[in-house]
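thread: overnight batch results

M.L. [08:02]
morning all. the overnight job finished for the chain we discussed friday. pasting input first so we're all looking at the same thing
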Amino acid sequence: MKNKKEVTKSLFRKVDIVELGCAYIAVFFTETFICYMKNLHLNLAQREIAEQIISHKVLIELLLSLLVVVFYYQFLVRKKTEIFCRILVGDTMREMTARYLKDSMKILGSTFLVCVLVKFVFMLDLRGSYYLLCLFMLFILISSSQVHRYEKF
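M.L. [08:03]
and the structure it wrote out:
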């Protein structure tokens, strides 16, 4: 029974979890695919195209990471009224922020683990995934401070 109560207190709904998970998967698996392209033995024409993609790896990852940033921004804007109403009925800002952090880290952690498992199977370098993980963890910590913005409607 406690689990059901905890789920209903979360700011994340199932649709939000799926959307955010898909955004994380897009970023992590694009990075994984680019790492995989480095190890492929391609003919000359294919190699030139692959090198162009590899040379723009950072830009591609930043643009895809922007999807996650936009999702979090839109998520918090959509939840503004819900946050205010929860405060009115007795929920504390500290508890809401802690649940937000916990749920965000769960979603990030699960997609990261799936990506790491795929990289282990293909014996790819893990550094890029760890960099993205640190970047997203930092962003989650920063975005958790935005929950406080909606304390007053």
